[in-house]
Amino acid sequence: MNTPTLVWSALRRRKARTLFTFLSVVVAFVLFSVLAAVRQGMLGQLTFSVAERLETNNKISQGSPLPVSYYDKIVTVPGVTAVTYLNGFQGYFKDPRDRLQVLVFSPTFLQVYREATLPPAQMHAWLTDRQGVIVGPALVRRMGWKVGETIPIQSKVPQKDGSTTWYFHLDGIYHADLPAAYQSFFVAHYRYFNEGVANPRLQNIVFQYIERITDPRDATAIASAIDGLFKNSSPQTLTQSEAAETISYIRQFGDVSAMVIYVGIAVFFSLLLIISNTLAQSVQERTAEFAILRGLGFERGWLARLVLQESLLLIVSGAVLGLALGYEVTRLLYPSVGNILQTFALTWGAAGLGILLSIVFALLAGLVPVQRITRLRVAEALRKS
Amino acid sequence: MASVIAADSQNRALVSLRGVTKLYQRGSETVEVLKRLDLEVPRGDFLALMGPSGSGKTTLMNILGGLDRPSAGEVLVGGQPIHRLSERALSAWRARHIGFVFQTYHLLPLLTAAQNVELPLMLTRFKAAERRKRAQVALALVGMEAHAGQKPTELSGGQEQRVGIARAIVSDPTVLLCDEPTGDLDRTAGDEILELLQLLNREHGKTILMVTHDPHAAAKARRTLYMNKGVLGEKPEA
Ligand SMILES: Nc1ncnc2c1ncn2[C@@H]1O[C@H](COP(=O)(O)OP(=O)(O)OP(=O)(O)O)[C@@H](O)[C@H]1O
Ligand SMILES: [Mg+2]
To answer: Among B68, B95, B104, whose Cβ lies nearest the Cβ of A296?
Structure first.
């Protein structure tokens, strides 16, 4: 017999209650994981944003296209060092479940997105290959591709010859020190798509221009200079810094996420109150047992530690399981929220914080019971039972 | 006022109470539950304590066992004034010197008989194997070795009380304090417990104080004292 036996026997005393408490802890920490992932998702958007980048969208509606002809004017704006633009379409590789987004950029892509690097030979290959594509390492791994391979992508967008299969050459794999969501891009050439696509309404349009500027302090001036160019054109443009863009993007659903977080925190703390109350109740029920132990010569501190160990075992193990499940839950949720919150994930840091929180909670939850034990009047407690 | 009540004045008393008073506050009223008690219990004694309900028997046992403190007076056990000990020192002292046996046994319900008996040894330096061995010996002494693995709910009242006694003697305490040990048992089971206490007293030299309401039980002790309204006497009050 040893202390763990005693702790364990205390927890087995009321199996259903212990299980219920344990499950509450698990649920609380699954919730914690999801909230942490949402927060990480919102943070991630901002970290990825670079102050030296501006984005030009259709002023009326962000998703609507702009003419590709705007490019020639935008590059002339002082302070703009590089401009790229993008279009794209949905497709899949062999299996319809292996869906991917084909992004087509101007060749200046790498000058604007300097976070993405690749070996000079691969860069050269891509720049000189009309059907070339550079792909993120995660996507390459998922699809099992190799550099030099020809990749057929099935889509619903027919080419001029009627074929809906687009062929790309994998010229390079870019590297970027960015979160997982940025490791799966499929970057092909705008020209290849623009010249190949059958539908004239899909030709010569872009969804966004992205500009690289020299000095972020000039961002506002440069943005209005760009928009000024198209004041009298249709459609008009709206240029924002990438950070501002991200913030306004997040704001669209930010209020909702903030509410989710607040409600989540409230639920989390209520659960903890319930758990702490359950522990206190369990100790209360065992008043006579604690009185006996005191009678046998066990000190208050010893009994207090016993209760704290009980609380720690229950809460910290529940938290570990909750975080593990939470990790799975966030992974399962990623496909549905990943396009809004690209860095939506439970990080090690957040998990560590969760464990720390659970320890603090276990100690707090043990506080009332410990106090009860310390104040226990042994003779009276024994008399009553 | 009260005379010193000793069984054998040649023997140096193992337990001695001098002028022990216990006051309880009941609302605005102060009740004197023990009134300047004097008592001497020599080593090897088996003393039965009788008296009406509410006369202060349990209060006396609690003070002797260091579970409660006297409002005034001295409590010496083996020459040590325990009323002066700090809370912490008193805990250690209880573990070393006192074995409690309760009317309602007070075994921990989720531990087996053997684990219950081993409990007090967790406060000693004995290694796990030694603790287990000693618990086994104590269980054998009370005739419960065959039930070592059973939980209290799987035992009869008499068996539970045997386990309770094994727990009380396992760390070889100086004094056994039994508060109505047969109070919840029928005559047969009660007699078995009393015989066990007699055995511990006669064969193992245990000093025992036992509270009882049953004259039949008191008759098994070496002598009987009567508590009446906080005063000890050698005869029941008329
Ligand atoms: N904590 C307390 N506060 C106030 N009064 C108390 C307290 N504990 C005991 N008493 C009172 O002290 C008196 C003696 O109680 P005690 O339990 O010692 O009696 P007893 O002789 O053991 O009785 P019984 O035979 O019923 O067990 C009783 O009147 C009881 O109500
Ligand atoms: Mg009593």
So the answer is: B95
DSSP state of B4: P
d(CA B127, CA B117): 15
DSSP A81: E
Distance from CA of A281 to the nearest CA of B (A): 17
Residue A320 backbone phi and psi in degrees, to 5? -60, -45
* Nearest partner of B182 among B199, B202, B201, B157, judged by Cα: B157
Ligand 1 atom nearest residue B31's Cα: 5
Instruction: Give the H or E element holding residue B165.
Output: helix B157-169
Instruction: Show me where the domains of chain A are located.
Output: 3-45+254-384, 65-234
For residue A201, the number of C-alpha atoms closer than 13 Å in the C-beta half-sphere is 2
- Interchain proximity A1–B68, CB inside 8 Å: no
CB B155 within 8 A of CB B163: yes
Ligand 1 centroid to Cα of residue B49, in Å, is: 15
| ipTM score | 0.91
At the top level of CATH, the class of B44-69+87-233 is alpha beta
pTM across the whole model: 0.71
B202, two tokens: 């006669």
Q: How far is Cα of residue B84 from the mean position of the Cα atoms in its chain?
A: 21
Sorted by sequence, the CB contacts under 8 Å of residue A100 that are 6+ apart come out as: A90, A91, A92, A93, A139, A153, A184, A186
CB contact under 8 A, A293 and B123: no
Residues of B in contact with A310 (CB under 8 A): none
CA gap A162, A133 in Å, rounded: 22
Sign of CA pseudo-dihedral B233, B235, B236, B238: negative
B171/chain A closest Cα distance in angstroms: 10
Q: How many CB atoms lie within 10 A of CB B204?
A: 11
Residues of A in contact with B167 (CB under 8 A): 296
Q: How far is CA B165 from CA A19, B13, B213, in A?
A: 35, 24, 19
| Contact between B177 and B126 (Cβ < 8 Å) | no
Q: Decide: B54 in ligand 1 pocket, CB within 6 A.
A: yes
- What is d(CA B98, CA B81) in angstroms, rounded to the nearest whole number? 14
Would you write out chain B's pLDDT as a tens digit for each of its 238 residues? 344 444 444 447 899 999 999 999 988 999 999 999 999 999 999 999 999 999 999 999 999 999 999 999 999 999 899 999 999 999 999 999 999 999 999 999 999 999 999 999 999 999 999 999 999 999 999 999 999 999 999 999 999 999 999 999 999 999 999 999 999 999 999 999 999 999 999 999 999 999 999 999 999 999 999 999 999 999 887 5
In short, whether B53's Cβ falls inside 6 Å of ligand 1 is: yes
Q: What is the DSSP letter of A286?
A: T
A interface residues, B as partner, C-beta within 8 Å: 1-3, 5-6, 9-10, 12-13, 288-289, 292-300, 378-379, 382-383, 385
Given a contact cutoff of 8 angstroms between Cβ atoms, the answer to whether A169 and A132 are in contact is yes
- B172–chain A nearest CA distance, Å: 12
Q: Using CA atoms, how far apart are residues B204 and B200, in angstroms rounded to an integer?
A: 5
